[in-house]
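Hi support team,

I submitted a single chain yesterday and got back a structure, but I'm not sure I'm reading the token output correctly. Could someone confirm the output below corresponds to the sequence I sent? I've pasted both exactly as they appear in my results page.

Thanks,
R.
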Amino acid sequence: MKCAVLFSGGKDSTYAAFLTKKYDIEISCLISLISENPDSYMFHTPSISKVNKQAEVMNIPLIIQKTKGVKEEELKDLEFAIKKAKNNYNIEAVVTGAVESAYQASRVQKICDNLDLECFNPLWQKNPEELWNDLLENRFEIIIIAIAAGGMDKELMGKKIDWEMIKKLKEIEKKYRIHLSFEGGEAETFVINCPLFSKKLAVHEKQISGRGDSWKMEIGIK
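Hi R., thanks for writing in. Yes, this is the structure output for that exact sequence:
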């Protein structure tokens, strides 16, 4: 079976791609939506322009679709991109990194139904602690590129998520009631290395902006 992976460059979509290959499903292409709206309901936005570097080291074709990011209307752009993948790569399924967002999962499912495609959500309802364990045990190197929650301070920006960081996140979870997998938008991530990559990506530039409990970081990759 040929599939397309909805890809943001973060931990969930990259791990979904990893599991897809592990299940011997062919990944024909990645699909990334670049939104003008930083508060998009559907799409990850920090450092989204760097997904091309990840696609290069995975040696997988990438379809990039721009969108204004207007709620519900942005789904038309997503459908257009998925239709392009179907026409150009003969995909039979779409894979997502959805964990708990019924909003996102239901809308992707509807688009797949319209286009007569299967929809796979390999991380759906996965326990947050198990998810982090799986990521680290499979040698995923992940950095934090955005935060938006109490207890998540600016000092976390650009930090690698390792076992020590997981311990710290659990303490924040206990005190501030954040979601450990960041399903409440508490943070966004970027994968710099994993078993799918032919080489580790190097971050050579960081531009941090924000205030209070909300910060984001644009990165340069080489």
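A quick pointer for reading it: The beta strands are 2-6, 26-35, 62-67, 93-95, 118-120, 141-148, 187-193, 203-211, 214-221. Let us know if anything else looks off.

Best,
Support desk
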